[in-house]
């Protein structure tokens, strides 16, 4: 494969994944990496036994007819640690299951299994005493080593560098991400680099007085804007509106969010809708709905 084409393909893929993944998750840069270890938006309380989330696709804009997309069940132990994560298809069949194992209060193993697979995928973790991840090693079901992530922190415990080494490239460094912080200790930007130390992209974050990210700008290696995102939040810190702008400054997508909360302040319903171009926010086309049932221990 042509090297230049490969670089363009990888860059395009990363950009699209990062843009799409921002639609559903409230950003939490305290635990920036790896973001895929735990599901997003888990309440921080330790008195939760189980969370059941059911996601729907809204197919009819007028009648709000909805079709179940998937169901996720999270189970916690008496200390509040996530121990089980199970997914079900829309027909109720098992999709996959994840088990988390801890030693001395620290995550050491994440085991992912599939209904028709003979073996499970494993991630093995090394952590500091305060729970920061030093490394994560992926071993696929057939026993083949996949990749290893390694993290570097500063004296304040802030993540400075994430490095990925991949088996398919003879365990060479294939990707790295640098994290930068402002004078208030907030994440101000990140930079992604490829296996030849070439810059792939960079992010810049801007905050309001409540330390919420109100603007995120992503640049390509030539310092041209790829996407600019403007965020608005509710009093719980969740998105209420996100607007996406292209390199020319034109708005091409607007998403609005509606939330319902229980008496403990945890969300129990989330709906995401697309705003029509040039319309007021009252003209919203619903896209998806997530309903969450939280089982407390007290």
Bin the strand percentage: over 45%
Helical percentage: under 10%
From the alpha carbons, calculate the radius of gyration and give it in angstroms.
20 Å
Number of helical stretches of at least 4 residues: 1
**Number of E-state strands:** 18
Largest sheet: 18 strands, antiparallel, barrel
Oligomerization state: single chain
Distance between the termini: 58 Å
Count of domains: 1
Supply the helix-strand structural class.
Answer: mainly beta
Bulk shape: globular
Element-by-element helix/strand order = HEEEEEEEEEEEEEEEEEE
Low-confidence stretches are 3-34
Mean pLDDT: 84
Architecture overview:
With about 300 residues, the protein is mainly beta. It has one domain (about 5-225). It contains one helix and 18 strands. The chain has an 18-stranded antiparallel barrel. Strand 5 and strand 6 form a beta hairpin. The chain is globular. Residues about 5-35 have low confidence and may be disordered.
């Amino acid at each position: 494969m042509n090297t230049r084409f490969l670089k363009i393909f990888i860059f395009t893929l990363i950009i699209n994944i990062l843009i799409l993944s921002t639609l559903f998750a409230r950003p939490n840069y305290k635990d920036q990496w790896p973001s895929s270890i735990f599901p997003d938006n888990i309440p921080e309380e330790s008195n939760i036994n189980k969370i059941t989330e059911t996601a729907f696709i809204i197919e009819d804009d007028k009648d709000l007819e909805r079709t179940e997309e998937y169901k996720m069940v999270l189970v916690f132990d008496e200390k509040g640690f996530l121990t089980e994560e199970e997914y079900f298809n829309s027909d109720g069949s098992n999709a996959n299951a994840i088990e988390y194992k801890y030693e001395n209060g620290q995550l050491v193993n994440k085991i992912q299994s599939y209904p028709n697979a003979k073996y499970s995928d494993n991630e093995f973790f090394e952590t500091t005493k305060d729970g920061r991840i030093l490394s994560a090693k992926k071993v696929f079901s057939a026993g083949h080593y996949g990749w290893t992530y390694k993290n570097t922190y500063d004296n304040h415990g802030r993540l400075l560098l994430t490095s990925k080494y991949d088996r398919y490239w003879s365990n060479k460094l294939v990707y790295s991400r640098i994290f930068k912080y402002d004078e208030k200790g907030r994440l101000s930007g990140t930079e992604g680099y490829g296996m030849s130390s070439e810059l792939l992209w960079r992010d810049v974050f801007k905050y309001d007085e409540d330390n919420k990210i109100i603007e995120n700008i992503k640049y390509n290696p030539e310092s041209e804007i790829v996407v600019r995102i403007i965020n608005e939040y509710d009093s719980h810190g969740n998105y209420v509106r996100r607007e996406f702008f292209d390199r020319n400054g034109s708005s091409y997508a607007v998403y609005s969010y509606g939330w319902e909360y229980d008496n403990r302040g945890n969300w129990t319903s989330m709906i995401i809708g697309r705003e029509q171009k040039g319309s007021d926010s009252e003209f919203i086309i619903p896209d998806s709905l997530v309903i969450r049932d939280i089982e407390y221990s007290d």
